[in-house]
UniProtKB/TrEMBL annotation:
<dbReference type="GO" id="GO:0016757">
    <property type="term" value="F:glycosyltransferase activity"/>
</dbReference>
<dbReference type="InterPro" id="IPR050194">
    <property type="entry name" value="Glycosyltransferase_grp1"/>
</dbReference>
<dbReference type="Pfam" id="PF00534">
    <property type="entry name" value="Glycos_transf_1"/>
</dbReference>
<dbReference type="Pfam" id="PF13439">
    <property type="entry name" value="Glyco_transf_4"/>
</dbReference>
<feature type="domain" description="Glycosyltransferase subfamily 4-like N-terminal">
    <location>
        <begin position="14"/>
        <end position="174"/>
    </location>
</feature>
<keyword id="KW-0808">Transferase</keyword>
<protein>
    <recommendedName>
        <fullName>D-inositol 3-phosphate glycosyltransferase</fullName>
    </recommendedName>
</protein>
<keyword id="KW-0328">Glycosyltransferase</keyword>
<feature type="domain" description="Glycosyl transferase family 1">
    <location>
        <begin position="189"/>
        <end position="346"/>
    </location>
</feature>
<dbReference type="InterPro" id="IPR028098">
    <property type="entry name" value="Glyco_trans_4-like_N"/>
</dbReference>
<dbReference type="InterPro" id="IPR001296">
    <property type="entry name" value="Glyco_trans_1"/>
</dbReference>
<dbReference type="GO" id="GO:1901137">
    <property type="term" value="P:carbohydrate derivative biosynthetic process"/>
</dbReference>
Amino acid sequence: MRIVHAADSFAPDVGGIERQVEALALAQRADGHDVSIITAVNKDDAQDDDLDVHRGLRTRWMTIAFPSFNHSMVAEVLDRGDVDVVHAHFTVASPIAIYVARAASRRGIPVAVTVHSVWWKVAVAHRFVSGVFFGPSLLRVVYSGVSTMIAEHIKRVYPHCGEVSVVPNLVDTDWWAPATPSLHRAGDPDFRVVLVGRLKKRKHIDEFIDILSRVKAKVPTGTSVAVSIVGAGPRHDDLQEQIEQLGLGSWVELLGHRTPEQIRDLLHESDLFVAPSRQEAFGIAALEARSAGVPVVGYNFTGLADFVESGVEGLLVDDADDMVDSLAKLLVDAERVERLKASTRSRRPSVTFDDAMRATYDFYERARRELGSRGEKQSR
């Protein structure tokens, strides 16, 4: 197939969607497909040796590109031979992806849209961008979400959009899996808790630090807990100040950036992984931790519910109060934590790399079946 991905964010920018689009394009190219990428990101340190990447002009407001300035580039990619499917990746601000989807739809090219963020935000932004920049137009696409939760959001907001597929993010679950038994046992001498994520407001790490303060007040004095927060970002200094003000210096350490190999090693000797975001569309870091055999504690109304069975592979809680109570109980019950670790390590993750690739190709076939191929459209 000839596949064109459209994503406003892409490498060298850092984030979940950037990693996913690049990983998917590389995997599809390895499968023998002709893959191109259209993105708004144009930076001096961009290296595209391994992929056919078409970058927008350097005319962005903050992270928002102006599609009209990139009309020629988009037309050149879409009109260069037969495109079998355009895979548009929507997040909260996606003017380039929306523009490419509309341009492809007008050409009769099947368009498959994957939503990577909480859908009501994407829907509001989509309608605003379409109305302000493009005007009214019939957008013929098929939709998918990166999790069941996102798919359900799409159905509620667009009740007449038809079937909504679930196309999970790509995580090499086998690479994260432990090869040897852990040398560490919960509470011996401490409980090891890990969080991995960008230090940004939307990750709700400040709320998790507040939760830890409440947990510390509920457990017996002297309970030994080591919380490692991995990641860099603009909120580092604010979070460090918060840790000190709450008296959590003996519990929490901001480790900064770590390589995937270093994160994997850390996970293999940890007891719990916490995913504190209440707006987690999927939870890449959480699936990596679960694949590494670490029980995950997160919220049951997020994308984590697709791959964490509560009580077996971690705990999915209702709200912040529930998370406080659940963590406080776990941190004084080493035997229960060890049971969770054993069951997590013994079960294959319910979402694997192969599952995600298969779901992606099935989604493309659905787009071609429901929307028709370019040749079929032009012959009518």
